[in-house]
Amino acid sequence: MTYTFWILLTASLVGISCGIVGVLLILRKMAMLSDAISHTVLLGIISSYLITNSLDGFYMFIGAAIVGVLTTVFVQLLNSAGVQSDAAIGVVFTFLFAIGVILVSMFARDVHIDVEHSIMGEIAFIPWMTVDWFGIEGIPQAVWMLGFVLIIDLFLILLLYKEFKLSSFDPGLAAALGLPVGLLHYVLMGMTSITAVASFDAVGAILVVAMLIAPGATAYLLTERLHMMFILSAVFGVIAAVTGYFIAAWLNASIAGMMATMAGVLFLLAFIFSPTHGIIAKRFSQRKIQQVDIET
Question: Which ranges does the record mark as transmembrane (predicted)?
Answer without folding.
Answer: 6-26, 57-75, 87-108, 142-161, 173-196, 202-222, 229-251, 257-280
